[in-house]
Every structure is written in structure tokens, then in C-alpha cells.
Design goal:
This protein is α/β, with parallel strands linked by helices and about 300 residues long. The protein is built from 10 helices and 5 strands; from the N terminus they run E-H-E-H-H-E-H-E-E-H-H-H-H-H-H. It is globular and about 70 Å long.
């Protein structure tokens, strides 16, 4: 029995690492987490193939949502894939794990799934169900070959581990200095001196993205896969420098639909980002003109 962990955000990533170790150690199952299990795979196509294989093999899916979680195109992709797998007449167990957030803060793509707080009784029910499913598997190694009382004791050890580690992660998140909220027009306020440097890096990343995709010679599937990776990477920076205010803003890039629909949506997203960079007034005119020229070239080639 395989477990799939979906996450978005720094704290969620750290929590996923805790759960990967705990599920593996206490249940003896294979647990997939992209940050670890795909780290050695090269190339966007191979990376996506590895993700798809993990999604197809899993029997349990856990999406981890924490206070710093952002809207992720990959999480939307994973949720859509699970929905498709559920039509294949096999049991699908999907949970949204909420850590320090309420259910109304979940990404919209996860609305159809069970939301689980960090509550001992709720987690015990999920844990026991997993134990029963593992016991039914052929060739069960015997790690769970115990009576009901032993399983409750086993859960107590499991809970103590994850509860302690997860709370430490959330406490560290609270103690970290938060990005100063600002309007993009208020660039003269004290404390914003770091934004131009970050914005310069953002512009450089955008330019590199266009260079790479233009080198793909119109292979739209490769372009769209690279776009999803790129959008996930730059979203935290977009929020930090004030280009977007929250995780749902500019959420116009479609995951599903025809190739042309997805491409059009991706182009709209990229154009919106460049337009907001221009309106921020934090980028020098020469660099901005070069970026806009590159965007226009990208638009013309992709839509031709």
C-alpha cells in the first residue's frame, strides 16, 4: 500500500517530511513525497512521469495545508489526477490535512475531499483504517500483526511523534518575521529596500523562462509542463514583492482543457505578471522594455 503526500509552502514541506518518516516507520509502507523522491530525476518530462506513477500507485492521498501554503498548479494537477483515478472502480482515500488553518482556507481544487484537523481522535480513526487495510494486503510483513489494543498503543507512539514535530514547525513559522504588507505604489516606505533586488531576480527568472521555452521549438506539451513548474516556483516571490496579494490572485492558468486553451491561459498569466511589474515602478525602463519585447516574441511564436 502506497501513500502520496501533496504539499505547498515551506512549512507544509517540512510537515510532509515528518509524515513521510512517521508513516514509513510505524506502518511499514512506501510514502511518496516529491521534494525527496523526485529530487534526483532530471528533466520536466521525467519529473512529471514520476509524479504520475506515484499518483496512480497510491491508495491513500494526503494534501498538507499550513498557514504559508499557496495556490499550487501542481496541487490542482494532483487533485485532478486523483479524481480521474477514482473513476477506475478502486477505493480512493483522500484527506486534506489542516495544520494551523481552517477549512475555508483550503485551495478550491480540494473542496471535494475530507478536511482533517490536527485532532487526536480524528487522526486515530484514519490511522486505524490504514492499519486494517494494510493487514488485508497479501504478503503483509507482519509489522501490524497485533491485537486491537496493541494498535492503539502503536498509534499513541505515532501521535506523540507527529504532534510534537508538527507543533515545532508551526511554532517556528509563527516566530519568523512576516513579509511587510504594502501597496505596490508605496515603494518609498521604510523597510522596502529589499524588494527591488527580489524583483530584479524575478525579472531574470522570467527572462530565463522565456529563453528556455522559446528553445523548445514549439513543442507545446513541454512548454506547458515547464510553465507549471515555473509558476509554482515564482508564486512565493510574487507575493513577497507585492505583485499579488494572496494565493488565489492571478489564478487564471488552467490545468485541464485543450492544449490551446491551456496555452492561452498560461500566456494571459505571464502577461498579467509583466503588466504588474511595470505598474510597480520598481524596474528600470531599459530592462522592462527588453522583458516586454521578449514577452511579445513569446506570444507571437506560441500563438502562431
Amino acid at each position: 500500500m502506497d501513500i502520496f503526500l501533496g504539499w505547498t509552502g515551506t512549512a507544509s514541506c517540512e510537515i510532509a517530511k515528518v509524515l513521510k518518516r512517521a508513516f514509513g516507520n510505524f506502518l511499514g509502507v512506501k510514502v511518496f513525497m516529491s521534494d525527496i523522491d523526485l529530487s534526483l530525476i532530471g528533466g520536466s518530462k521525467s519529473w512529471k512521469d514520476g509524479l504520475d506513477n506515484a499518483l496512480f500507485r497510491a491508495s491513500y492521498y494526503f494534501f498538507i495545508i499550513s498557514p504559508d501554503s499557496t495556490s499550487s498548479e501542481w496541487m490542482a494537477y494532483e487533485a485532478g489526477a486523483i479524481h480521474a483515478i477514482s473513476r477506475q472502480e478502486r477505493e480512493i482515500n483522500t484527506y486534506v490535512l489542516l495544520f494551523g488553518v481552517e477549512a475555508n482556507k483550503m485551495p478550491r481544487c480540494l473542496d471535494d475531499y475530507n478536511a482533517v484537523r490536527l485532532d487526536r481522535d480524528i487522526w486515530e480513526g484514519v490511522f486505524m483504517k490504514m492499519c486494517e487495510d494494510i493487514k488485508k494486503l497479501p504478503g503483509n510483513p507482519g509489522i501490524l500483526d497485533n491485537g486491537r489494543m496493541d494498535m492503539q498503543e502503536w498509534f499513541r507512539y505515532f501521535w506523540n511523534v507527529i504532534h510534537s514535530d508538527v507543533n515545532s514547525i508551526l511554532e517556528n513559522l509563527k516566530s519568523e518575521p512576516q513579509s511587510q504588507e504594502r501597496d505596490i505604489s508605496d515603494r518609498g516606505l521604510d523597510g522596502t529596500s529589499a524588494y527591488p533586488e527580489k524583483l530584479n531576480q524575478l525579472v531574470e527568472n522570467l527572462t530565463n523562462f522565456f529563453d528556455i521555452t522559446l528553445g523548445m521549438n514549439g513543442k507545446l506539451d513541454q512548454v506547458l509542463t515547464h510553465f507549471l513548474e515555473f509558476k509554482t516556483q515564482i508564486t512565493p516571490t510574487l507575493r513577497e514583492v507585492g505583485i499579488i496579494e494572496d494565493s488565489n490572485e492571478l489564478d487564471i492558468a488552467k490545468i485541464h482543457g485543450t492544449t490551446n486553451q491551456r496555452l492561452t491561459s498560461a500566456i494571459e498569466y505571464l502577461n498579467s505578471v509583466v503588466d504588474r511589474i511595470e505598474k510597480s515602478g520598481l524596474q528600470d525602463q531599459d530592462t522592462l522594455e527588453q522583458l516586454k519585447a521578449t514577452v511579445n516574441r513569446f506570444n507571437n511564436i506560441m500563438l502562431s
